[in-house]
Amino acid sequence: MKDIRDYLKIQPLLFDGGMGTYYASRNRTSHRDCEWANLSAPEEIAAIHRAYLDAGCRAIKTNTYGANRLRFSESDCAAMIREGWQIASRAAGDAYVFADIGPIDAEDDTDILAEYLFVTDQFLQQGARHFLFETLGTGQYLSEIASVIRTEAPEAFILVSFAASPDGFSRDGRLIRDLLNAAAADPNIDAVGLNCVSGGRQMVELMRKIGPVEGLFSAMPNAGYPTVRGNRTFYEGDPGYFSDQMEQLRAQGVRILGGCCGTTPEHMREVAKKLRMPTAARIEYRPEAAAERRARPEADDPFWTALCDPDRKPFAVELDPPENADVAKFMKGARDLQENGVDLITVADCPVARARIDSSLMACKIRRELSMDAMPHMTCRDRNLNATQALLLGLCAEGVNKVLVVTGDPIPAANRDEVKSVYNFNSRKLINYVDGLNRTVLPNPFRIFAALNVNVRNFGVQMDIAKRKEQNGALAFLTQPILSSEGLENLKIAREKLQGRILGGIMPVVSERNARFMNSEIAGITVDEKIIELYRGADREKGESLAVEISTEIAGQMAPYVDGFYIITPFGRTGLVGRIMESIRQAGLA
Question: Which of 99, 307, 387, 428 shows the greatest Cβ crowding within 10 Å of its Cβ?
Fold first, then answer.
């Protein structure tokens, strides 16, 4: 068999199309866990391979996309890979067989690299020398995996393919152009590309936006948009139209072509016909002029200017949005804070996972009606990429230019999990996604703020997370309230190790009951027992006086290590917050 690299120097390589969706259509079943068919219906899998080869494909993928130990037992996974490789190898003849490895994802502490290495080792034992890592949402671990494969099999050919939405982002919120360029720069990776999510036409347009990527490129789009009938997913894209789009991709310089979800041997037969024809005129790339969108309007952001001024420490104050549609009290509180000279109002996003008016809508209302700077909290809860981008575009149009990105409190599960939280990504991924939009879509980029919990026991882990947030685009941090000596010590560490601006958190304690509630019910807040004792037997007036005194003392302790103060309004008492701000000013701290 000719070395695949030599083959690609002469002509494009045509891969097969979808395995799972085609298997499901042939057998009127779900495509989920079709890897079991390697063990239960090997003749059917072999027939699918042969159908693609008869259509003119010169490379086939093993039926092992989802074969990993997070989905199956170790013995079953190993058997699926072994049989999947053998079935494809027997069917292939002189065609190339690629070990197909899909994304391995986990939200817990699973060692994902170990899982990938287990799968690749199973293939290496079978003699695999062509590897496809497909439908990836991140480039994490790729360099390590490719290095191990190259060490074990120096002649191996490694293709990595990312799944991108038509607007150029992976499901993890990563800018696809960055992922492709990083993978292409790895000396152990032979080719990079795109597959899934987008149909042929969308992938053509996406390729034009991305611009040229160094080296060999692959494109394996879906057969158009899916439809759902009777809980089953169908793709009804026309094979002729699909082949026209593949010819456009070929004209853009793509050397490796194939299909993903919904594509069939008939789709690939039409593509094979096109590849036997002369190449169309090469299409020029039209990469987006992202540089024109990166300018930050410094003069229009007094809060950021103050935060960067060594002689100032501005105030950001958090207000919880109303639990009903009556916004009168909330807006009065915002006006009171404005009169007291607050620099920025932040609006929480359904704190403690209780439904409230949307934080972004309230931030827009504050900006529109009071001409004040407002920053909504943006959680990862119950919003996918499309909803997040739509929201950010709306905020940008309204002149809101800051967001505080946090994971968000999970919704407590009801009986039988009737109510659940939906998390497509964590705060680090969301920060990276907003940063990518800043560089490609948004005319006025957002300044991204992040949360920093200084009250956790293992603060080293929190610092590692904070550093990754900075790497992903966070420019400043709002700390959890500091009400203990441990929190203050951790703040000092953060000041030494972080590059971004820091706003020190202050949460006024108004009563003993309030303090004990925070210690017991609110994650990320620790109130020192000495502070609690001061409130024993105090009435409201005494409690508020103590709140002013203690908050000012805490501000003084944290002042050398912060660039501003972040005050959380207790029970809507904006008048108390005003008193605290004035006391901090009189102490010469702001």
Answer: 99
